[in-house]
Amino acid sequence: MRHQPAFAPALPPAVLPARGRARTGRGASRTLAVRLAAALLPAGLMAGLFGAAPAMAQTADPIVSAIQERAADTRVTRSYTLSDLGIDGPVVLQGMDARRDLYLPVPAGVPLSDAAIALDGEYLRGDGGRTTLVLSVDGTPVYSRRLEGDSGSASATIAVDGKPRPTGFVRLGTAWSSVIGEYLCADERGIGNVLKISPKSRFTYSYEAGAVRDLATAWSGIPGSGSLLVAGGTLTKDTYDTAWRLGLALEAAGKRLVVKTLPAIGDEVDLSGLEVPASLRVVAPFSNFVGIGTYRIKDAADLGALLVLPGSPLGADVAVADAGLLTSMKSALDALGARLGPASAAFTEWRTKAASLGAATVAADEVSLQSLAGRPVIAVGGAAGGKATALFDSFWRTSLASGAVTIRAVDAAPLKPSAVSLASLGPAEGNLDVLARGDFVVSFDLAAATGGHSLPSRLNLDVAAAPGASTSEPVVAVFLNDVLLAAKRLEATGHPEHLTAAVPPYALAARNVLRVTFQRQPVSDRCRETPQAFPVSVLPTSHFELGGAAPGGDFLGVIAAMASGGHLVVPDAYLASAKASLPRVVRAAAAAGVPARSSSFEVAGPGASFRAAGAFLALDVPVQGITPKARVEGDRLIVGTDDKARLLDISGLKNVALVQALRADDARGIVWQSIGPVAMTPEKPVRLSRGDVALVGVDGTLTELSASGAAPGTVRVADTDGPAGTLQRLWQKSSDWGLPLGIGAAALFFLLLIRASYVRRRGS
């Protein structure tokens, strides 16, 4: 039995040293003191003397580590589908040989990591034979599969290499081959073998945020949906003016606009897609966001936490950095830093990398590159307006090789163009390998492409085709918005060949699609050659000639008149509901062809009206000086000004808007009126073309008609004024008067010859 030494104090067993463990030096003395105090002092006094510092250290260290881990992680992950790029329906490939290129935007010149394309598709194989799917990335085949069975899935996931793309696009090539017959001369025109690529196909990639060093790269990295952040509450006129212009620039660049407003304390935010990093799930206030769908912001620290978290619903691609937005952000981030206490130093480093916008000073006419929610954001001064929009036009965008610029003056182009090159309208591969059919497709915004000067009047297309094995000449056909402009047989000698076509006004729209289709005979005479593809090219010299005039007071006439600039008028109530009204204004302006850089912006007060002048677009504002063709009374719609001959009189409508083209003595414009108590915002682009009255719903244009009595699309000669319009109409109708005029001129010539001969004989 062990005995305690006589000099040892009588201590409880809980404070005795553990058996076999030596306590020496300062550590042993301090441990002994702590244990003596634990035995002899009250528990509360013990916690006050010794417990506070160790507990604080244990609490602060994990927070500091978590914050430092977040500061070191600067990777940005993007993910979007083909539907985000505006491809609403499936991409269908069928026939003996069909190919289609899809352009997926990425930051220009930035290395990618973990990039992959998840292709969602299915196939039908009713005609049997051999069917093959080949996928390529930037022209390099990376996937091949032979499809069998009557139908099935064609889904595939392919990796994308991480090399930088100077063009700002990853080109996904899809090729479909269907060979039905076993013999060389068999008929391959079966329609039962089809490949369908779903709009749900997704592209995911990551990149380092620090690799985006200039504004041009940041703009090129905006995915299919471009998000715009503005301050909460009621916006100033300058801020709203800048916001709608930037939103229109995003939509013109093919980005679907998503408007976000900075929430205030008490507002609810949707956190369904937010993934809180594991290291922050035990740190307040980040722990409040774990596993919930919506969250009501309790204080400024909650808002600050959302501003720095990657994947935050407040993350944006472009922000209107006015004084209200910057002040609210700075206050929220300061409150979060104070909440974190001992980790404030580490948070300052994270804040600098993840939310530098909250500490930036952005002048009214400045555009700078900042960070928000861990990703790059383009901060635009509150009064930059049309200057910033013109700066991001395709002409000046590539010159933004800087992280911050001050805009004093900017124009669309140094010279007024008389022609627009097809190569400047958008990304499209000019070289095609065509076996049976190949399409060159380019989309363009009318106002952005023409610089707001005039309309396209003629298309000059230069193409070249290599000779094939078949003796049949290839055919090229040109379509503008599915209207056939011209077609021609090509000699196919490898030399440039020219094709020209007049551009009729009825073929134009605010948003246009030009398609050049090449068709070849896939086999040679008597099937002596194996079918193979031969190259064709749309040459860079192809262009639109400008100088066309607008014929009419319908939607096309207003869009044409709006090309050089107009007036955008909204009620002041729109400024108090920016999140709901800005997408409506942007999509209405896109449908009307309002140029973002050369149009004026006006706000009508309560009950005030707008006096029609020049070209205009008025949303939910009464317009003086015009005679409407339809009117709205609450939820009642009346089309037709004559009470005895109304085209439509209906009530109970909702989620629709009345849009009509109106014309006065010196004004021509479009009036947009909401029907019902709640204003409707279209989710898809609105197309206005050949009528003067339209009903617009969530999915775009529902009905379009001509309330003036003329058939939609009819060219009304009286609507085109001036000598230039008269000459244009005469030239367009030259086929009607050309032959009679030629016969008459020939007859007059012979009469003059007979008369001269008679005079000579009589003189003799």
Secondary-structure class: alpha+beta
Extended strand count = 42
Low-confidence stretches: 1-60, 710-726
Number of helix segments? 13
What general outline do the C-alpha atoms trace?
globular
Report how far apart the termini are: 168 Å
Account of the 3D structure:
The structure is a single chain. The protein is of the alpha+beta class and about 775 residues long. It folds into five domains: about 75-210, Galactose-binding domain-like (Jelly Rolls, Sandwich); about 210-405, no CATH class; about 420-525 and about 530-545, Galactose-binding domain-like (Jelly Rolls), CATH 2.60.120; about 555-705; about 735-760. The protein has 13 helices and 42 strands. It has a seven-stranded mixed sheet with strand order 32-31-34-40-39-41-42, covered by helices on one side. It has a six-stranded mixed sheet with strand order 14-13-17-19-18-20. Helix 2 (about 45-70) runs parallel beside helix 7, helix 4 crosses helix 11 and helix 6 runs antiparallel to helix 7 (about 345-355). The longest helix is centred in the first third of the chain and has 30 residues, at about 45-70. The radius of gyration is 35 Å and the shape is globular. The protein starts with about 25 loop residues before the first helix and ends with a helix. Mean pLDDT is about 80; it is low at about 1-60 and about 710-725.
